[in-house]
Amino acid sequence: MIRTILCALLVAAIVLPGCSKKPDELSESEEIKNLWTPADKKINEVLTQAQHVKESGQPGEAVKLYQVALQTYNTTAAGQYSFNWGLWAQMCIGEAFEADKKFDKAIEAYRIIADRFVGGGQDDSWAIEAHKKIVTCFRAMKKEKQARAELQKIIEADQRVIQTSPSDPSVAWAALEIGWCYGQMKDWKKAVDAYEKAKQNYPQGSWAGQADLGIADCYDKQGDRKKSREILNRIVEQYPRDWAEQAKRRLAEMDGKPAAAGAAKPAGAKANTAPPLPGGARKR
Question: Is residue 191 situated within a structural domain?
Answer without folding.
Answer: yes
